[in-house]
Amino acid sequence: MKQQQTDGGARGAVFAPVDSRARVDAVVRRIGDAIELGLLADGEQLPGETELAGRLGVSTVTLREALMALRQQGLVTTRRGRGGGSFVSLPEVPGEERLRARLRGWSTEELRDLGDHWAALSGTAARLAAERTEPDDLLQLRRTADELAHAQDAPARSRVYGRFHVELAAAAQSARLTREQVALQTEVGALLCLVLGDDEYREEVADRHRAVISAVQDGAHDSARQLAERCVLESTTRLIAVRMSL
Amino acid sequence: MRLATTALGTAAEESVAAGVGTALEHVFEAVSATRSETAALLARVAAEGRRPATVDLAALRPGLHTRLARMELVSGVGFVAAPGLLGDVPAWLEWWQSDAQGDVRPLLLDLDPDHSAYADYTHWDWFALPRDTGERAVAGPYVDYLCSDEYSLTLSAPVELEGRFAGVAAADVYLRHFEAAVLPLLRRLPRPAHLVNARGRVAASADPAHLAGSLTKGPDFAAVLERRRPATAGGALLVPCGGVPLVLVTHPPLT
User: Fold this and answer.
1) What CATH number belongs to A98-245?
2) Which of B95, B109, B132, B196 is best to mutate for the A interface (most A CBs within 10 A)?
3) Could you tell me the CA-to-CA distances from A21 to A62, A73, B16, B86, B134 in Å, in that order?
């Protein structure tokens, strides 16, 4: 069921203002990733150009360029006239192809930096959670770790992987870290599909998540931080390896 | 840590705790108004011999909007259906929020598990506690990344249809608003004081050593709430806040 656009949670971050640098690319990346992740569904209508430009914090000219690029990638179709507008459209090309094309838009330096940012967020969240968590807070994290161990396709694995890190930030009792983590997941989430398709690696991530939970439960701040950092840096390293092979 | 019955004079602390209780009882009034309107609506639809649908819940909107506009502490209010209740969708939140400008907006979530990792809301305390206990509940403080992205308290109560659980009526209070409401009360006390929930999580504080979100470890706060009278533990005075599940913690001067 679809309740249209939300202003909260992961979907809200899709339409939050983009960085000032390379705005067209940033918009293409943001909306493209949201489509790959299934945050925006096939056939869903995007908000009108003026509204979308306002929410993303870009000029309508920039937005139109970005929509043009998305149309070229086959991710958006535009219909004219009454009932017209821009619609999400998932082309028949395999998702992995499209994701590789998206990954090519990232330099290895940008990916390394993304990993550093992610490690800073999740590492700090794990440390604080270890200080501030009581047993009932861990139920959701455990449920998510188990769900990852059973998630079938790569997009589902990626969504659950991201949810673990959002829940970790929430367990740290920090609204700011949680918002940052939600925003970061809209960037990294789609790309992670490229490394989470591997069953063995999916198992490894689930184990790493369980190790973080144990350290948080034991109140072991430093090891919780290190384990969370290692988990996300390993994922980024794998992404960078894929990028270098393209 | 052992709880002991206190022989100290605790009039000032009990009055502050009662004030905190009253502030949240006002919010519970919004919850119980939503609860009875929803129960009446569901009963009316059942009497027509059909299953309720999302379109029926639109009748709740005038009441929800009024509560949002009139109640300063309330930033979100609504009815969250138990999955399977409605005929046209598997799950639904008839949920309205007021933003910083005072505009009232619906919360529109993606509840399709194939698209959203956040589609299942039935494990959140604000839903699970009223469902499992049949009683009203205060969830949090917690980071509400589903609805508001705010650090919040959510007050909720079960809604029933023909004796069966049909969902929860609930209201959100952002922690910063709660703090603004109760800090003047806490500051009346001669010693630093803070409020914790049944699990020891600090909900508001006038004590720099115990900040909101941290845990106060040691005393069994749930037991204090159950006994519904002041107690002492390790030199701290613990006073339950009326009928709401918060405990005032302070260190009274020794007499």
Assistant:
1) 1.20.120.530
2) B109
3) 12, 21, 52, 46, 53
